[in-house]
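Section 3.1: Structural characterization of target chains.
Under the original work plan, the team committed to producing a structural model for every single-chain target entering the pipeline before any wet-lab resources were allocated. The record below documents one such target. The sequence was received from the expression subgroup and is listed exactly as submitted; it comprises 410 residues.
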Amino acid sequence: MRTAQTNPFSPGADIVPDVWAGRTEQLSDWRDVVRPRLIAGLPERGRTILGEPGLGKSSLVRRIAQHAAAAGDWVTPQLRIPSGSDPLKLVASAVLALAEEAGLPSSRERRIAQALARVQTVAASGLSLTVRAQEGPEPHTALTALLVEVGRAAVARGTVALIHIDEVQNIADEHALSQLLIALGDAITHEEAVELPGGAKVRRSLPIAVYLTGLPDFEDRAGAHKGATFARRFKTTVLTAIDDEDITAALHGFVLPGWEVPDGDGGTTRIRMEDDAAAAIVDLCRGEPFLFQLAGERAWYASRAAVITREQVVSGWRGAQREAAAHVERILTRLPQRERAFLEAMAALPARVRKLGRIAAEAGYAKTTDAGPTSQRLDTVRGIIDRGKLYTFRHRAVEAYLTSDWPRAE
């Protein structure tokens, strides 16, 4: 039965949807690189996942966290940083929870007791500790010390401690951002001496994984604070749209054999989707995870029949057009004026002549080179365009919004 309770599509933020599409590279990075290296004691950088709104950054890392928890790893909840808040307090509370899961509060070792006490103070007072210049280490030093203890306990247990900090672009206090990045960076680069059978000693890294997620602007600020140090300690990925093939593959379970749901009588039934209905969803969402979930949700609610048709997809999407347009408008609105003007000039030109010189002239630049920095940011920082001999849109929803009557559906 197609009801609200059985709808597998979830367009809400930070949700790990039942119908998952793409991001295999990032998921395999955790499964095949990050976790195996950390378990083996090899050094591995933290991961920074950035991208424009709606690209599924938080959902991706929450899915990674689900895999980690299923493997027995210690995982923090999603630590979402509200605007204007003290991130050290939030992270300190999460580290204390990891310490409890590791069994550290019951330890009688003096250094562990001191680390716990200091971080408990950080969790209560946050950055104000440094303002008051209290005795003892600064908050970032205390956090690092406790994370190291958690890492040592993880080594003994054969697990990984995973920390996920979301909306990192909301950390407005530069001092707090610096302390947080130093604390996390020092923990993931810390090495311990361990004794092998036979008495030989080697050094190993601690199994601590850190994922930071947020908007593309964060990399500029983090790089300004830590420069090369941040780049050495964190590997940054800027997410872009999902390939149509991946979305088609995600919908294959509806086409064949059908999506299993309760039938309301104690048994189960299957909801199927016609091929052209799946193709319509692929076309409408333009590779955006949020819009993919939105199109699927509205198609599901468009009828109670056992088969989802193209007509139902289009009918459901008509009710979502305003939300889809607002989604893209939010992306464009937050861009600096020069960047938005560049995109509008690029969209005004036929695809076959979208060269930097033509775009610069259309945008009113006196010289082609004046448009270079703007185009570079739109490519490398925001992931909205691809530069080349011809410039193309990587963010296909933005392209559709600026060049056609999308999101209107025929």
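The chain has a mean pLDDT of 91.
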